[in-house]
Every structure is written in structure tokens, then in C-alpha cells.
């Protein structure tokens, strides 16, 4: 008697789970590292983050190569990560497997992997078809066999060809799950068919007829159980059930040859023969001529197909046996009951669709057989389209409850198969608008899918593409994937790219990191000058009021706040590149103006110190290098003047200082000889604009003083102009209810 095989062990050995095929039984790996990883809250989630830089590197590496090579590398990256995560899950404690995010991330990446596989297959064919349409001539060759009809049909029929690609894709997924079947088949082969029943019958023959015995078949031909309406021995019946399920799984995976091999090894060569009859007939010798060649296929395929259909309808057969012959004959009704997943159901519909389209084409070519008329009329007359498949599929699947993530990928796969890009992007837009955040890896997939479609020149809803990329950029910022952000920002519209990258840079504070981010922006082709200007202006204008009216009495310097320090440090963005020195002056002037208006002199001095001393000389040098003979643009010239003006204001305490020291004497000498007049007018302008009119009158006292004799450096016209400005300040003071010198009027 053959050893009883446990159901689960037997099945699992033949068809290991997706995880079991990836187990590494060697102990050469670092076990301590594995144990350490398992102590983390969710090591798989952290490990999967490497896909973000990996995808970008793949994109850059394949920028100038075939785009489908890139998609195949995307699939390979996902596959490698899935393999690693599966090992991680298997090493974790049993109680942790179901609750771990690692399991869900593994499934997510498996779905992404197979979706890239689908996209590669379908779009490689679609692009090839478009390229071939211009050079192919619509020539119908004489068809003298079913195989020739089918080959010509697949060459010119886009729907049937793409539908077969979908079938191939779904079968490849099932094949991945089966693993290396050939390694297991030898252990479960049987040399004798129904050996337990045979053994029992032999025992009964040799024993007396007395006593009760359960009825069994008395003959062992394949039709005996049905014909005699008697059962097999329990062990044989269980073995048959397992065998039939495994045979169906092999056919589901497109492994018909393996299914036939299994039948033969299990003593059912007759069943292997029944799986052979689907092949289309072709006789290469029909036109005579040269050396005889082997005839292919089944000349009586129509008879075989009708028999398969009838077997699928036979209720006495096991459901998997019925499903096997339903798949071979295109009997959708009997195929669906064993479909346990969305992929199984889609496979059933598309396999039947291809089967029907091929039979319809053969019939229309005149090679159809009368035997096929025995099949139900709806089989040969159904007008299958891709849209019809998914309409019926939706009705079938409405009872199946799926989680949101599964719905996402199944919907993507459906719309990719239909080629409905507008519908796909509408779904993307809907997902982005929901309150529930999308999984990080799904966002990465969506972004790279958008970039793929753009590379093909497909017409897309641009606003949705932008929203997808923006969502992914926000994710990268959140995950601190600093090195990746600039590249994806560069695929946004120019103005939006500037604002998006500037928004990211606002939170970058470390000097070397700032330099690095600007280098990445330059490499990505971003407008660095516009970005840094935007960063500075955004922070400069944050949480600030307009110039306030301050009292005219002297006040202590206001303390520098955290927000003030941000405004001070933001100038650093403009000094990395010497070409931005003019902008650095303009922005620093604006920041210092507001600090001075708020009596934050120390903060203004810190901003001033941020501007390199050679900035004005650098601005003039760059202008001259451009070969410009004209003066600086008015905007740059004004920025320089204002910078000098503010510098004069920030040394005003030295002007008012009465103590003698060598440094002051040296400054006074320089001011007298070079720019005392200009400095006085600039300082006066600053004081008046900041409504410090009383201080402007003090400046007049200093200039008129005989102690310093500063008035001697003024010309007559300059003194008249200066006095006119003094008059303006006095009038403004009178308007405020003060005397002309800025003091309160005594009652």
C-alpha cells in the first residue's frame, strides 16, 4: 500500500506559496543581522525605501536607451525587493507575520512588479504596431490550414493579439507563484494508476465473500467510476482531487507541457493525451514539393473540442476536472467557479475571448467544421470586445470584497489593458483628492508611469500629471529623500518648479546641505537664480508688518527673534553664486530696511555682514565682462547706492560720537576726501524714509558744527539742497504737533 500523503504537504510541495519558493535554506547569511532587523518595529518598510533612489538611478541610466529596457529594470527592482522581503517575513515570528506592514508592502510591490510587466508587454506591441502600420501592406495570403489562419489573424488583429498578451501576462503571474515545479514532480509520481483501489480489489478477490465491504468500481479504465456509478478507494479519490487541482493550476499558469508530464508520471497517460487536442492543424506538405515535413496539430480538433465542452458540463466530474476541459474548450460558465482571485477571473474571460475570436476567424475563412455547430450558439456568436470583457467582469466581481490597495492596482491594470489614459488619470486625480493618503510606493509607481507616458509622447491630462508629481515630491520631502527631489521638480512647469523647489529649500538650514541642494538643482536644469530669489523673498516677507510709525525718542535696540534669524540666514542662498551678487544686495537691502524700521539695528548689522565685501566690485566686474559700455542698470545702481546708504546709517553712532580715537579720525579723513557729501545725503534719505526726522535735524547740527567743520566739504548748491530737506523734516514734525526741532510744544 502506498504511503498516505498528507493533503497540505503534498499540495504545498507541488505548488509552494509565493513565499516558499524564495526560501534560502543555507546558513551562510548573517543570522545576527536578521535577528537585529526583526527587533525593529517594521524592518521591511525601512528596507523598501531604497526603491526610491533605485528607480531614479534606473531612469537616469536608461535616459538614452530603449524605454522598454527601463520598464524591465523597474520590474526587476521590484522583484529583487519582493524576494528580500519574503525572506524577511519567513524569518519573523509566526505571530508577527500577519500584523506586519512588511507583508502588505510585499504584496504591494508584487502588484507593482506585475503591472510593469503588463505595461511593457502591451505597449511594446502597441508601439511596434504603430510603427509597422506605415510600412505594412494589407495583403491577404491564401490560408490552407487552421494554423495559417490563426497566424495571419494574430498579425493583423490588434484586439486578439493584445488579448493573448493579457492571457500570457496572467499566466506568467501564476507561473511565478508555482515556482520550479519540475524540482518537485519526481517525488510524487506514481507508476500505477489508482493503486489503492487495485490493491483493495485484489484483497477482496483472495478473501472469502463473507462480511460487509463497501462497493467499489470493479473495473479500472478511466470511465469506470462514471459508467458504473461506483467510487474509488478513499485514498485514490483524494489523490485524484489533488492531482486535478494541480493540473488545473498548471494550465492556469500556461504550463500545459508540465501538466501532461505530471499525468504521465502519475500513470494517467490517457489524460495527458486529452490535453493535446487543442493544437491547430497544419500540413506543410499540402502544396507538394521538397522534402516531407511533419504534420502539426489535431486534424479532428473540432470533435475533440466538442467532447471537452461536454466533459466540462458533466456534473459528476470533479469541479477542477470540469474547469480543465472548460479552459480547453472555451466554456466560461464552467471555468468561473474555480476562479478564486481577480487575476483568475480576468484570465478566464480573456482566454475564452481569444478562443472564441480564433474560432470565429477560422469559420469565416471557410475552414470551420460542422462539428462545432454542436457547441452553444452564444459561444461562436458572442461579439467580444475588451470593454465587454470588463463589463461582464465587473458584474462577476461585484460580490468580491477587495481592500483599497488591491482596487488601485486592479483598476490600473484594467485601464492599461483598455488603453484608457484619460480614465486612468481621472482615477489618479480622484485618489489624490481623497482624505486617505496613498501608499508611498503607489505614488512612486504613478509618478514613473506618468514619466513613461510622457516619454512616448502620449496625450495626457497635464494638470493631473502635475498633481501626481507634486504629491510624489511632497512625499520625498517628507521622507527626506533630498537627492531625489530636484529631478522630479524639473518635470513640473517652469514657474511651478521654481516655487516647489523654493518651498523645499526653505527648510534647509545647514550650509553644506544648501550648497548640495543647489548643485542638484543645477544638474536637473532648474532655474537656480529664480529659486533662490523666491526662497529669500518668501522668508523675507513672512510675518512682517508694513513700516510702523515709531516715536521719535531714542530707543534701545529691539532683540533679535528666531524669525529674525531666519531672515538673516536666508541671504546665504544668494551668496553661493557670485553671479547673484546684485540680487544679494537688493534682498539684503530690503531685509535691513524692515529691521531698521523696527529698531532692530543688531539684526540689520548681521544681515550686512552676510554680504561679501567685494559684492559691489563683483557686480561692476560682471557687467564689464559682458562687454557693456553703458552704465549699470538703474536697478543695480540703486541697490548699490542703498547699500552704501545703509552702511552709512549703521556707522551713524560714530558720526555722533564726541570721543576722539584713531579709528574715528581715520574714517573722518576718508569721508571728507571721498564721499562725505554723498554719505550725508544717503543717511538723510534713510532717516526721512524711516520717519526719524529728529535724528535728521541732529545730522544738520553735526554738519553745521565748527568743531568738525563738515560743511566745508559741501558746495553752495549742495548746502541749499540739504537745507531744503531739513525744511521738509521740520514741516512733517509740525504736522505731528511737535516743534520744528521735534520737541513737544510746551503749553
UniProtKB/TrEMBL annotation:
One of its GO terms (molecular function) is structural constituent of nuclear pore. One of its GO terms (biological process) is mRNA export from nucleus. It is found in: Nucleus, Nuclear pore complex; Nucleus membrane. Its main location: nucleus. The keyword Manganese does not apply. Keywords: Membrane, mRNA transport, Nuclear pore complex, Nucleus, Protein transport, Translocation, Transport. Pfam families: Nup84_Nup100. PANTHER family: NUCLEAR PORE COMPLEX PROTEIN NUP107 (PTHR13003:SF2), NUP107-RELATED (PTHR13003). Functions as a component of the nuclear pore complex (NPC). Belongs to the nucleoporin Nup84/Nup107 family. This is Nuclear pore complex protein. It comes from Cyprinus carpio. The lineage of its organism: Eukaryota, Metazoa, Chordata, Craniata, Vertebrata.
Amino acid at each position: 500500500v502506498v504511503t498516505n500523503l498528507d493533503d497540505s504537504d503534498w499540495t504545498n510541495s507541488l505548488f509552494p506559496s509565493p513565499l516558499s519558493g524564495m526560501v534560502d535554506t543555507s546558513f551562510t547569511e548573517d543570522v545576527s543581522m536578521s535577528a537585529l532587523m526583526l527587533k525593529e518595529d517594521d524592518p521591511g518598510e525601512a528596507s523598501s525605501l531604497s526603491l526610491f533612489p533605485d528607480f531614479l538611478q534606473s531612469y537616469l541610466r536608461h535616459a538614452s536607451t530603449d524605454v522598454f529596457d527601463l520598464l524591465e529594470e523597474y520590474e526587476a527592482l521590484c522583484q529583487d525587493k519582493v524576494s528580500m522581503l519574503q525572506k524577511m517575513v519567513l524569518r519573523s515570528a509566526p505571530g508577527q507575520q500577519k500584523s506586519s506592514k512588511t507583508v502588505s508592502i510585499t504584496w504591494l510591490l508584487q502588484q507593482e512588479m506585475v503591472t510593469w510587466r503588463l505595461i511593457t508587454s502591451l505597449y511594446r506591441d502597441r508601439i511596434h504596431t504603430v510603427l509597422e502600420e506605415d510600412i505594412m501592406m494589407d495583403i491577404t495570403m491564401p490560408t490552407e490550414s487552421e494554423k495559417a489562419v490563426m497566424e495571419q489573424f494574430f498579425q493583423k488583429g490588434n484586439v486578439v493579439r493584445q488579448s493573448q498578451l493579457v492571457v500570457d501576462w496572467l499566466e506568467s503571474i501564476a507561473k511565478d507563484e508555482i515556482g520550479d515545479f519540475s524540482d518537485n514532480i519526481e517525488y510524487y509520481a506514481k507508476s500505477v494508476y489508482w493503486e489503492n483501489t487495485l490493491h483493495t480489489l485484489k484483497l477482496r478477490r483472495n478473501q472469502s465473500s463473507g462480511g460487509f465491504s463497501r462497493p467499489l468500481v470493479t473495473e479500472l479504465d478511466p470511465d469506470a467510476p462514471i459508467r458504473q456509478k461506483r467510487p474509488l478507494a478513499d485514498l485514490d479519490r483524494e489523490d485524484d482531487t489533488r492531482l486535478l487541482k494541480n493540473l488545473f493550476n498548471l494550465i492556469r499558469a500556461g504550463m500545459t507541457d508540465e501538466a501532461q508530464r505530471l499525468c504521465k508520471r502519475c500513470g494517467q497517460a490517457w489524460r495527458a493525451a486529452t490535453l493535446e487536442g487543442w493544437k491547430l492543424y497544419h500540413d506543410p506538405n499540402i502544396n507538394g514539393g521538397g522534402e516531407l515535413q511533419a504534420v502539426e496539430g489535431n486534424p479532428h480538433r473540432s470533435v475533440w473540442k466538442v467532447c471537452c465542452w461536454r466533459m466540462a458540463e458533466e456534473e459528476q466530474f470533479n469541479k477542477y476536472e470540469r474547469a480543465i476541459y472548460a479552459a480547453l474548450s472555451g466554456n466560461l460558465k464552467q471555468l468561473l467557479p474555480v476562479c478564486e482571485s481577480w487575476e483568475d477571473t480576468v484570465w478566464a474571460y480573456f482566454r475564452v475571448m481569444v478562443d472564441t475570436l480564433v474560432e470565429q476567424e477560422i469559420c469565416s475563412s471557410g475552414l470551420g467544421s460542422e462539428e462545432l455547430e454542436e457547441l452553444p450558439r452564444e459561444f461562436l456568436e458572442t461579439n467580444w470586445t475588451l470593454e465587454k470583457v470588463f463589463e461582464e467582469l465587473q458584474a462577476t466581481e461585484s460580490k468580491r470584497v477587495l481592500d483599497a490597495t488591491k482596487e488601485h492596482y486592479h483598476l490600473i491594470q484594467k485601464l492599461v489593458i483598455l488603453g484608457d489614459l484619460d480614465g486612468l488619470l481621472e482615477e489618479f486625480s480622484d485618489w489624490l483628492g481623497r482624505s486617505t493618503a496613498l501608499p508611498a510606493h503607489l505614488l512612486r509607481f504613478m509618478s514613473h508611469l506618468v514619466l513613461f507616458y510622457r516619454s512616448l509622447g502620449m496625450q495626457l491630462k497635464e494638470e493631473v500629471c502635475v498633481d501626481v508629481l507634486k504629491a510624489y515630491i511632497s512625499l520625498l520631502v517628507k521622507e527626506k529623500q533630498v537627492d531625489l527631489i530636484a529631478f522630479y521638480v524639473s518635470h513640473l512647469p517652469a514657474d511651478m518648479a521654481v516655487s516647489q523647489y523654493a518651498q523645499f529649500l526653505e527648510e534647509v538650514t545647514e550650509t553644506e546641505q544648501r550648497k548640495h541642494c543647489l548643485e542638484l538643482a543645477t544638474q536637473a536644469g532648474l532655474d537656480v537664480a529664480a529659486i533662490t530669489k523666491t526662497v529669500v523673498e518668501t522668508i523675507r516677507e513672512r510675518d512682517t508688518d508694513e513700516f510702523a510709525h515709531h516715536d521719535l525718542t531714542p530707543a534701545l535696540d529691539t532683540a533679535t527673534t528666531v524669525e529674525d534669524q531666519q531672515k538673516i540666514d536666508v541671504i546665504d542662498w544668494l551668496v553661493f553664486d557670485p553671479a547673484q551678487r546684485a540680487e544679494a544686495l537688493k534682498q539684503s537691502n530690503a531685509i535691513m530696511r524692515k529691521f531698521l524700521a523696527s529698531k532692530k539695528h543688531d539684526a540689520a548689522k548681521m544681515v550686512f555682514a552676510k554680504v561679501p565685501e567685494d559684492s559691489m566690485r563683483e557686480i561692476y566686474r560682471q557687467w564689464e565682462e559682458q562687454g557693456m559700455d553703458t552704465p549699470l542698470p538703474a536697478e543695480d545702481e540703486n541697490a548699490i547706492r542703498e547699500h552704501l546708504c545703509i552702511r552709512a546709517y549703521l556707522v551713524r553712532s560714530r558720526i555722533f560720537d564726541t570721543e576722539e580715537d584713531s579709528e574715528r579720525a581715520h574714517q573722518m579723513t576718508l569721508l571728507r576726501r571721498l564721499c562725505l557729501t554723498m554719505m550725508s545725503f544717503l543717511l538723510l534719505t534713510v532717516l526721512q524714509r524711516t520717519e526719524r526726522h529728529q535724528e535728521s535735524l541732529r545730522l544738520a547740527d553735526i554738519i553745521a558744527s565748527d568743531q568738525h567743520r563738515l560743511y566745508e566739504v559741501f558746495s553752495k548748491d549742495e548746502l541749499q539742497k540739504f537745507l531744503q530737506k531739513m525744511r521738509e523734516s521740520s514741516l512733517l514734525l509740525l504736522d505731528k504737533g511737535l516743534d520744528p526741532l521735534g520737541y513737544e510744544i510746551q503749553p
